[in-house]
Design goal:
Helices cover 79% and strands 0% of the residues. The chain contains one helix and no strands.
Length: 67
């Protein structure tokens, strides 16, 4: 009977340990995923800003001068 309690205790300990390790890994995964999405958004916005700055202004005719 002692060996049964030993295996039950061992299984319980391994299960609890696996739960807490999995919980921490999930926290890390979600944090990393959110940070990655934020970084992608910032990089995309940065590219749009660079394109906007590199655009050459279009020369428009002064319509009021001809009147």
């Amino acid at each position: 009977m002692d060996i049964t309690y030993y295996f039950i205790g061992l299984l319980t300990g391994v299960s609890v340990t696996a739960f807490f390790i999995g919980k921490e890994l999930y926290k890390y995964y979600t944090k990393y995923t959110i940070q990655q999405k934020q970084l992608d958004r910032i990089l995309k916005l940065n590219d749009k800003i660079k394109k906007f700055k590199n655009m050459k202004p279009i020369k428009t005719q002064n319509l009021n001068a001809s009147m």
